[in-house]
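tmp note - Thiol reductant ABC exporter subunit CydC
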Amino acid sequence: MNELAILTKAMIEERKDIAMAIIGGFIAGIAGVCLFSLSGYLISQTVFAPPLYTLIVLTSLVKILGLLRAGSRYAERLYSHRATFSLLSRLRTSFFDKLVPLTPGILGKKRSGELLARIVGDVESLQHYFLRVAYPPVIVVMVFLATVLFTSAFSIWIACLFVVGMLATAFVVPALVLIGQRKIHGRVRRQRTAFSTEVTELLYGFRDLKVYGQLKQREKLLQHASAVLSAEQQASALHLLRGQSLHTFVAYLISWGVLILGVYLIMDGSLAGVFLAMLVMASLTVFEEAAPMATLPAYKQDSEHAAKRLAEIVHAADVLAPQPSGMLSVNEAVSVELSGVTFQYDDEWRPALQNVSLHFPAGSKTAIVGPSGSGKTTIVELLLKLRTPTSGEIRLHDVSIQELDEAGIWQASNVVLQHSHFFRGTIRDNLLLDAEHHDDHELSAILDKVQLPNLSLEAAVYEKGENLSDGEKQRLALARAMLRKGRLWLLDEPTSSLDYITEQRVFRQLLAQAQDDTLILICHRLTGLEEMDRIVVMDHGRIMEAGTYSELMEQKGYFYEMKQVERQMIGEA
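out:
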């Protein structure tokens, strides 16, 4: 599929402003040609001492054409730029609509700096497509054809020379620019991506780089990337300047041709001398409208390259099934069932989950334990529809998850992931992420439940919660979840950074609130699991054993060995 199809569709939706921009551009171009042609004719007429009323009429026409040109040029700029900004708005909306269903999988494939460069830089580059690629040829053709018809009334030979000039400036010069542009096609954008990636890596890892003494090396890499980017941008700008200079040379060459040919026609008696200045001025003016054609190939390739890079990100969205409309109830506990579920990450040699079958009855409390890399977190991501199973089926409340809208699943779920994001602002701001209203009394009560009674709602939170400890972040994430009204709790290592006493207090509050809800807890610690209805033990993507705490301890299997190891570590500590 053509990468620019989405842009073309957006242009069709902005057809009214585009049509007004074309009309304004055509009137401005013709008014400019007429203005300078009439000025040349007026100068020529003064030599023959015409009647005063002739000079008054010609002077008035010059003023009227000047005003008309200025007004139509303003209208052209107004409508063309308004159409461009509307196009960018539609592109961003469409792009993000396709991007959201692909997360978080796409975050694991693209470096954040590269992804940011595509989202910001490539979308911005597409603003040139209408102004620099689609719009100029239309205006050039319309203005040139009108000018050729005008000049043909005085001399068919000069009109033919105008046609030659149009072909040279509209096709030959852009073709020559395109040949040179292919050598540097995409290099500036790729280097800009590399530079953005290096900047992002340096900012995110500044503290670690400083601690490990690698900051200077990273700074050198960033400086090198900056120098290369500057060199590529300079080469690209120089190439465009050469194209513009070539266009100017051709335009003046045609104007000299009109002058020489006009003199010959006057000597031959085929053209009245009073029209020579008019035709020369017309040739000088009409080629100004063709000036954007010199840089059109560069902007066209830049736009195509940007559209292709964006299409690479959202290509998967084009082959996704239609968006399901099924909604998950938020008023009753949810039953969960996994039947033969297998999931394998791209480019991984082994599946993260292998033929997993589990049933979580509505209102049950289940803990999933196991070593790192056993597939526990993958189950949560599959239940949230952040990833799609390679095979098998997942059902929520006896409805296939493929039939449920993911937004409805998120709304019906109280989720705490391993890494929760915190925004710059206050504690209140970070608690009130949900659309529902909560007063300060409710917020303070929730902070008490998660053992943060002394934390002020007005306390500042830095970007990514940099001024909060890991334990405070986890308890704030739990507080956010406890403010929601969902009946499905999905908790992934929610208290791993808490001490045992605080952890038990928080769990008691959590279990009390989720008493009638379905709760799935991912954890490494085995302390306090006696209160869970069932414990599922996983390793290498498989279920090793499942049962109540007492049943697993009596079996003296995998869970029993994990518990003994934990007791020894606690005793040594």
